[in-house]
Specification:
Helix 9 links the parallel strand 9 and strand 10. The radius of gyration is 23 Å and the shape is globular. The mean pLDDT is 89. Helix 5 crosses helix 7 and helix 9 crosses helix 10. It is an alpha/beta fold. The protein folds into 3 domains: 104 residues, 3-Layer(aba) Sandwich (Rossmann fold), CATH 3.40.50.980; 229 residues, ANL, N-terminal domain (Rossmann fold), CATH 3.40.50; 105 residues, 2-Layer Sandwich (GMP Synthetase, Chain A, domain 3), CATH 3.30.300.30. It contains 14 helices and 24 strands.
């Protein structure tokens, strides 16, 4: 297990662990002692590599998990001083002659079942689960993603000048696939940020003439709204792949017009190694689609009764060489998510037209208003178009056996409370949507919207807010 922010040796640990038939698992560096101890208890690692800045949390979590046989080392790209008897990870590295004589197992057919990584699902809608990904899964998703990504690219010219900036966390499948596996396969130059800071991010883009990014929607929102962007030359940027969470269509169209780069959307999940659907680089689509199904993969749309449907929204089921082996030591969850013939029930509501896929929302996040479905992502996208709103989350408010959309919004920096009212927000949405999508559950202003590092809204936290707010809710409705 690795518990660290990004640094140069994280890819080394990833490749070494997987390549030697161990299992690599990374933990979110923002985890508390309790959160980390849960993951430690589930995977029971033999070795934990902990960054010096996280040592107190990591050491306390290991003690709480009560695994005395687990070995702990300090893990950084610089030499580490001894802490509580814990040594620098470099102290257990093999000698040069031993490394030279090491023989890698080529695996062959064993690659189909040999676990390489146990990445954890985000836990936005339930208890995090360890996702078992095989060597075959990783190689397949890497090659298939590269095929679609570079489909419209002159590789002989493009790859020689490619420079990537990796700021997404390396404990996450998204960054592992691109920063480690695809970048290594293509041989492109990658600069790794230890942690995301927007001004540093802009500076590195300009200094290193970055051509390609993998990003999440909150970062794209910063590019569109922060005034500091004008102080930097971003003309080097050619392609940005955006995933992990929905991005409003107006935002992507605004950015491509302003900066003249291409934005490729994609869909994936930890259970599909990473990518399942993707747009190619250098394509300027303006309709918000998430792209094409990866080669060698199958997908179908299934309704609430488990029947396959066509030309109507439904849950995406997918299977292919990139789909997981199952959940670590959790057969019950594996049976609930996977069919016996290999389909993964993704929980995402999608539509497909002319081989292009659109992700509408999460099945578990849909709000039911008088029998009609409301997709939170649709309302959130509208809210983010408001000039005074910086971020937003929408959830269902349960009242007297009915459910109504409720919004939590964050004002733009510099605005004071009162410069935008609840009634104004409700009226803004009511003027743009059908009646069942109106914010009859009210609006509350927050200092921030809780998000994971991947950019996904922490729905469980938002639902906790709504549950508490329902106890004292008093409806306020706009006059149209």
């Amino acid at each position: 297990m690795v518990f660290t922010p990004n640094h140069l040796y994280v890819p080394v640990a990833y490749l070494a662990a997987a390549g030697s038939k161990r299992y690599y698992t990374g933990a979110n560096p923002s985890y508390t002692v309790d959160e980390l101890s849960v993951q430690i208890s589930i995977v029971k690692p033999t070795i934990i590599l902990i960054h010096p800045s996280l040592f107190e949390t990591g050491f306390a979590a290991l003690k709480k998990a009560n695994l005395p046989s687990t070995k702990v080392f300090l893990f950084d790209d610089e030499d580490c001083d001894l802490q509580k008897g814990v040594r620098d990870w470099k102290s257990f590295l093999a000698k040069g002659e031993d490394a030279d004589s090491w023989q890698w197992d080529e695996l062959g057919p064993k690659a189909m079942k040999q676990i390489a990584t146990i990445n954890f699902s985000s836990g936005t809608t339930g208890v995090p689960k360890g996702v078992c990904i095989s060597h075959h899964n990783i190689v397949s998703d890497t090659i298939l993603t590269m095929h679609v990504k570079l489909h419209e690219t002159d590789q002989s010219v493009s790859l020689e000048t490619e420079r990537w900036l990796a700021f997404l966390p390396l404990y996450h499948a998204f960054s592992q696939l691109f920063t480690i596996n695809i970048a290594s396969r293509l041989g492109v130059t990658v600069y790794i940020m230890q942690a995301f800071n927007f001004i540093d991010f802009l500076y590195y883009l300009q200094r290193y003439q970055i051509t390609t990014l993998q990003a999440v929607p909150p970062v794209m929102t910063l590019l569109a709204k922060r005034s500091e962007v004008a102080d930097y030359d971003l003309s080097c940027l050619r392609n940005i792949m955006v995933g992990a969470a929905p991005m409003p269509l107006q935002l992507s169209n605004e950015l491509t017009k302003r900066f003249n780069f291409s934005i490729a959307r994609g869909w994936g999940m930890t259970e599909t190694t990473c990518v399942g659907i993707l747009e190619p680089d250098n394509v300027r689509s303006t309709d918000g689609n998430s792209g094409y199904l990866l080669p060698n993969s199958e997908a179908k749309i299934v309704d609430a009764d488990g029947q396959e449907v066509v030309d109507t929204p439904g849950e995406l089921w997918i299977r292919g060489p990139q789909t997981m082996l199952g959940y670590w030591n959790n057969e019950k969850s594996t049976r609930e998510s996977c069919t016996t013939d290999g389909w993964i029930k993704t929980g995402d509501i999608v539509v497909v037209k002319n081989h292009k896929w659109w992700v509408v929302d999460r099945k578990k996040e849909l709000i039911k208003v008088n029998g009609l479905q409301v997709a939170p992502a649709e309302i959130e996208a509208l809210l983010l178009q408001h000039q005074k709103i910086s971020d937003a989350a929408v959830v269902g408010l349960d009242l007297n056996d009915n459910e109504y959309p409720r919004a939590y919004v964050m004002l733009e920096p510099g605005l004071s409370p009162g410069e935008l009212t609840e009634l104004e927000v409700q009226k803004y949405i009511a003027e743009r949507t059908a009646k069942h999508k109106h914010l009859r559950g009210g609006v509350e202003f927050k200092r921030s919207i809780p998000r994971l590092q991947s950019g996904k809204i922490m729905r469980s936290k938002i639902k906790e807010w709504a549950k508490q707010d329902a106890k004292s809710f008093r409806p306020v409705r706009p006059h149209l």
